[in-house]
Request: fold
Amino acid sequence: MKLRVGAFLEPTSLLQQRPTALFGRGSPLLLANMTAASEDAIIRRKLLVEGESGLDDRRFGILLKDYLRWATSDETPEANDAACQTILEKILQCENAMDQALLIQLMNMEQSNRYSELLEEIETARIDITNQRERLKTARVIRKNRQEYHNLAKIVQEYPERQESLRKLQKMRTELNNLENTNKMYDERISLRKKQFHLFLVALRDLQKLVEQDDPIVDLDSQKNAGVDEAMDTS
Reply:
């Protein structure tokens, strides 16, 4: 809030036209005003015009002393006008100081709001970074799973489809059954040949025994030829 001059001092026209009875030395109105000022009002005015360095507080004290000196003085109108002008200039300086303090306060409030917004933005950014990290972890897992899926897909593509595999399996089973039947047939044939060969060996052995039991038959022509050969040898 901007404190104007009229909040604690009279306007210039009233100061220049003050009656001596009101503002003379020992005036009851002046004494009543001075005694009626409470400590809260003084502290409030002090907080309004006090700066960081304390110069405004001293300036306000000097202004108050000048005002009291001017209000209780019995000088000439020219001197009173000059003193009044000096007081007004000091009041203007106090107002400027108050305006400056107000601007500084507004600037501090704006900076505080800006800092609050920055803190909110930082917190939002931190939450966003945390979410992005979680999304990055999830994306890495998804990428790993996709890579494994592609590798498995390449391996699976190297093999035929299920229907074709079943068809080949059925064909191989049929061929296996045929081979088993053929093998069984050859086993039966081999078994038959073994039995036949065994019978042949038995018959051959019996025939050999019969041949061995028969008497030897002498060939006459062979004997005659043998005698001729002996005669030729002796001659």
